Amino acid sequence: MTRLLQLVAAGGLFLADLGSAADELYTPKHEAGRCAIRGNCGSKTFFGSQLPCVDNNLAEEPDDKTRKQLTDLCGPKWASGPVCCLPEQLDALKSSLSTANQIISSCPACKDNFYNLFCSFTCSPDQSLFINVTKTLEKNGKTLVTELDQLISKEYGTGFYNSCKDVKFGPTNSKAMDLIGGGAKNYTQMLKFLGQERFGGSPFQINFPTKYEEPGMEARPMAPKKCNDEDPNFRCACIDCPDVCPALPDIEESGLCHVGALPCLSFASIFTYSVLLFTLFVALVGHVAWRKHARRRTERLRLLTDAAPSDDEDEGDLTQNGAMFDRPQKTYIINTWCDSAFSRLGHVAARFPAITIVTCVLFAGILSAGWFHFEIEQDPARLWVSPTSAAAEEKAFFDSNFGPFFRAEKIFLVNDTDSSGPGPVLSYDTLIWWIGVEKRVRELTGPTTKSAFKDICLKPTGDACVVQSVAAYFQDDPDSVDPDGWEATLRKCAASPVECRPEYGQPLESNMILGGYPESGDPATATAMTVTWVVNNYPEGDDLLAKAMDWEEALKNLLLEVQETAKDRGLRLSFSTEISLEQELNKSTNTDAKIIVISYIIMFLYASIALGSTSLSVKDFLRNPAISLVDSKFTLGVAGIVIVLMSITASIGLFSWVGLKATLIIIDVIPFIVLAVGVDNIFLIVHEFERVNISHPDEVVEVRISRALGRMGPSILFSALAETISFALGAFVGMPAVRNFAIYAAGAVFINAILQVTMFISVLTLNQLRVEDSRADCFPCIQVKSARVHLSSGNGGVGSRFQEAPEESLLQQFIRKSYAPRLLGKKVKAAVVVIFLGFFAAGIALIPEIELGLDQRVAIPDDSYLIPYFNDLYDYFDAGPPVYFVTREFNGTDRKHQQQVCARYTTCQQLSLTNVLEQERKRAEVSYISSPTASWIDDFFQWLNPDNEQCCVENRRPCFAKRDPAWNITMSGMPEGDEFVHYLNKFLTSPTNDDCPLGGLASYGSAVVVDSERDTIPASHFRTSHSPLRSQEDFIKAYASARRIANDVSASTGLEIFPYSIFYIFFDQYSTIVSLTATLLCSAVAIIFVVAAVLLGSVLTAGVVALTVVMVIVDIIGAMAVMGVSLNAVSLVNLIICVGIAVEFCAHIARAFMFPSRTFMERAKNRFRGRDARAWTALANVGGSVFSGITVTKLLGVFVLGFTRSKIFEIYYFRVWLALVVFAASHALVFLPVALSLLGGEGYIDPESDGLEEDLASRRYRALLPEDTDSEDEY
């Protein structure tokens, strides 16, 4: 880069502008054909540059050699006429322009204007008309020019500046104006920079006055070339001239429909609910008015209907209960089949309990043997992205061709610990201390492999490691830090990074190492600095990867120590190594495991204890405490829980056999699902069996068991089938985390259902035999004789104990006497519909507010050292991640395909890859592309330019010096075929140095894969970078934008192009997660509807169940928006769980409604008729089991999760599961009975309640129950 600065000095030597008044002594004559300066007369000092001589004589014809030299350098327009320059001036001019040519040659207009200015200043025969010497120096008998004025028209100056202001210098991705014009913002600043006398600049002063009164002088009439010139030979490429860029189509963002400030979906939901609410209000007002009008006419009939039956009447007379008038009269053949099948299954399991239990244990044991093949997948890239997805394939392609993306070790040093506010992070003492820290890092070695940083670091130029640090501005040397001048050095390097390059040679922009100060502010006031050590990455299993990770472990320990030192200095240090995130995630998992285990233990204990209290009343306990030892069902509860665990282990073992890896989500979540389903089914079976014991006390245990399972089996089948199929839908998802979870969950639920209707039935049989033999729970070998005396009522028999029904639990009494009657009142039903539809509408309205993403800060413990690092990364790092646009099987040897990707040549396609990327960079707010593109093909062709004499050299001469056709910007002289491959290989191995900054080794050595045998480019990439990404939304939109750009270019060029950045594989899921979520949930609801319609025999009831499930899910989604739970793979898994659990809440109530128990329906209040009576029956029959079996169990488990230290569990599990339990329970126990009473289908006869025998058993059951004393309030 040193020669780039020499160009400025050369420019100062040959360029002049508008100046002060003329001095007749030095340029007395101003006329055409007369010179002002000519030749070189010496220098001011021994090491100074040559100064021109004062010469006001006539221009002279040059000799042939000089003429050829002039035309070769300045063009054919100098082929005739006198000139005012000598050969030594042309030699100096050529040397200077050769360096400038590497910077601006990509834009022919800028180059022509630049060359024209220099050539005219040096050789024009009319110099005296626009150049006036004002100061001289006499030395060695010669008059040296020390100051002059040059006139340049505003038109030419403006045109010259405009043609060059947007030209890019490829290797450094910077603007050429920063090098040739000092970062000038207009043409006068540019010329002032070139004319200012200074070391490294112009050797004499050149003034550029805008007004000049000297007679006979005027600016030379030169017309500047425009970057979008009409002449295609001078027209610049899009990357250097925005005026020639094609207009890209506007981007229409989806999902932006709004009505005022509200999204359209939210507006539609609110509006629809408001209309329905108003309609309901009008209908209620009309109904009340009509009811008052009709009350008198119907009073007598209503009183007759509500009259209480006489105790003397036959209990079998239907006039006792109005509800029995509407008792279902039809049978449903599928239900009858299911009832019969489960009755037979129950009888077999009860008849042969030992065989059944042993068979089930063997079955589960064989499946569980798959645990020997059990593996947990922890690699996020293989968890969240399908191995067959585009993102996974693209990552594999990138890694195999260009190597795995490098490993970054990064720190932030911030001065924000003072209570008065943030302050400058840098000071002399801080710089000296930090340079010492970096020295310790360089000397650090891994504890195991003893590898040092130099052994594993990235070395793009061959020797020096890449360390991006402010210390590089001071050569990593504390002696270079001036106590008084360090701020000036910092400002100079930040303004011109090319002058303060680090050891590895690439300029280091200030935004890469400093943060917390305005873009145009003083870098010395930055409140934060960041340092990055770049380490090579390697494939899994490579020994070098182990060395890198070993060194990173040592670095982590060192930085933890430096953190404490920084605190003592009043600073705060945050950091991350490449191994940090995985370690912290595992730490979070270990912490969560304890909470999860405690949660499950509490649910297990509750289920065991609650199950034991189903037949044990306080009254019996007080009469004879010994009875509790017999009636307790703790062992039965434990057995039920063991069956749940067996189903989980069997499912995991089964799919481990087939090589399906488990995930932490599976281990954490599946017990929650199976426990919810399993415990509820256990409660239902036990409760129904207790009722059968009362109604059929004289039958043997096997028959009673078969009756209980015959009634509850179809209900269990309904819920298990709906849940299994719903979960199994996830198996069709490509995302492994979701797919594997769905398969494991479906297997566990299905196996659990099988074990419950077989093994649990056998255990229940043995338990009942124990009870009837008065043996103690948990110690069945011990017979409790005192309990036997009480139960036998003194006659020594056990049959008499069943003549007295056990007391109902307080919960059952509350539901039967108070809750169900009040819920089914007309006014209450109207309120329930209004309230629940309101929640539903609110949930729909909140759907657009759901955000996408999973912040890494959520996935790690709250006390992790990575939390401050991620905060600082978003707050202070003002650079985005690199992004590569990768070509596959690019035939670069063909001119057509070269033109599809290049940008700096006139025949490049307007919508070529690099041109499109340049245009997208100019709308970074939507494209998220912020840096110019590093185009290897453009710089390769520039490297071939014979004017760059130190670049491509063969046989001691420029490669294309005598080429026909010559190298030119129309690409007609560019290589093709074998020649292209030959020179490309030379370019990729050409060193990048001051003599040839365009050398491709450092910038593109690993960016292009060449297949010399097939003469093609199997893989190459074009590098740019994203704008700073500070949120999950930014990352998602950046990925979507890059994908859009690549697809558009591929469509327009026919090339195969894809974008790649290190974070893309983690955000690929968000391109489809919304549609995937909608598809899975809708498919699950559709499956539930079909299963319900088939097993319940009613489309109406199936529709009500499906609607209830939809309302639960929508309400949960709305709660997610309110509680800040974003949509990602974790929450998608939870939503699938929610569908399954919601079905479990609803299935048993729906079936009890469709097949009402005669025993319960005969106890319905006389005011209930038809659907109301069946809804009351359903609640009274299974409502208590649903509440105690699922709701309370889940609430206890979820409550414990609230104490987790992990944000991911607190947000994605505790919050979502709490919403699930609340909404599912409220909908199942409140909304569903109301909806069924309003819209439910026609019921069917329950086979277990049909026939004379069942009628007599029902009478016996009702006779043993205490009479109701609750009132019959109107509704």
UniProtKB/TrEMBL annotation:
Single GO molecular function: sterol binding
Major subcellular site: membrane
InterPro entries: HMGCR/SNAP/NPC1-like_SSD, NPC1-like, NPC1_MLD, NPC1_N, SSD
Signal sequence region: 1-21
SUPFAM superfamilies: Multidrug efflux transporter AcrB transmembrane domain
One matching Pfam family: NPC1_N
Alphabetically ordered keywords of this record: Cholesterol metabolism, Disulfide bond, Glycoprotein, Lipid metabolism, Lipid transport, Membrane, Signal, Steroid metabolism, Sterol metabolism, Transmembrane, Transmembrane helix, Transport
GO terms (BP aspect): cholesterol metabolic process; sterol transport
Top-level taxonomic group: Eukaryota
Topology class, membrane: Multi-pass membrane protein
Gene3D superfamilies with a match to the protein in the record: Multidrug efflux transporter AcrB transmembrane domain
GO CC, one annotated term: endomembrane system
Record's subcellular location: Endomembrane system
Alphabetical list of PANTHER family matching this protein: NPC INTRACELLULAR CHOLESTEROL TRANSPORTER 1
Protein name from the UniProt record: Patched family-domain-containing protein
Organism this protein belongs to: Podospora appendiculata
